[in-house]
């Protein structure tokens, strides 16, 4: 069975998984517990909810999308919902997702204080449990600190297992950049990775976007990733 495709529900905007987000290429340095917990959920070894939290760029979205990919490879169904983009659609998006083997709700704090979304998520949680399926949540803050206003939803988010993800240090970010480049068919020397970290916003989302731009530019120019080429590309992107 294919992974859940929100486009089949005629949503205003499609939601796509990054093809490079897999459990196999997640570098767990400092986050081994989070990776192990996700693998247990995917394998069906637990029906408890899993709540991953940590700052921007610590790997939460990667793990949730990777979990969906893994379910698909096993022949199961999954749904990945990034609530940081909740303003692009409406709470009806959550209707019917309880039939999926796994529902991954990214950036759940993105709908905190929005009554309709909170109510829809609360009822989805209950329906998923009734169907004996699984859920993984992510947020920037812990369940106790999340600013949801519905007490019953806040208590549901506290059920199950909670794991905090550590932020990657610069050495790990360099490894991640080099791995991402390799997956795109590029070779990124260490000095180029250092250059990007010293010139760009250091969060992984920004670095990933810049690597996409470098990939496109390198393909067009038939150039290798060198500091002069990266410098030219960064200047062009900033214009």
Detailed description of the structure:
The chain is of the alpha/beta class and 239 residues long. β3, α3 and β4 form a beta-alpha-beta unit. A 5-stranded parallel beta sheet has the order 2-3-4-1-5, with helices on both faces. The protein has 8 helices and 5 strands, in the order αβαββαβαβαααα. It folds into 2 domains: 6-164, Rossmann fold, CATH 3.40.50.300; 170-238, Helicase, Ruva Protein, domain 3 (Orthogonal Bundle), CATH 1.10.8.60. Helices cover 43% and strands 10% of the residues.
β-sheet strand percentage? 5-15%
Q: Given the structure, what is the number of helices?
A: 8
Q: Sum up the overall morphology in one term.
A: elongated
- Main beta-sheet annotation: 5 strands, parallel
Q: What's the average pLDDT?
A: 88
Number of domains: 2
- CATH level-1 class of the largest domain: Alpha Beta
If classified by CATH, what would the architecture of the largest domain be? Answer: 3-Layer(aba) Sandwich
Enumerate the spans where pLDDT stays under 50 for 5 or more consecutive residues: 1-13
CATH-assigned homologous superfamily of the largest domain: P-loop containing nucleotide triphosphate hydrolases
Helix-strand pattern: HEHEEHEHEHHHH
The helical percent reads: 40-55%
**Secondary structural class:** alpha/beta
Q: List the strand order in the largest sheet.
A: 2-3-4-1-5
CATH topology of the largest domain: Rossmann fold
Q: Which oligomeric state applies?
A: single chain
Distance linking N and C termini:
44 Å
Number of E-state strands: 5
Round the Cα radius of gyration to an integer and report it.
Answer: 19 Å
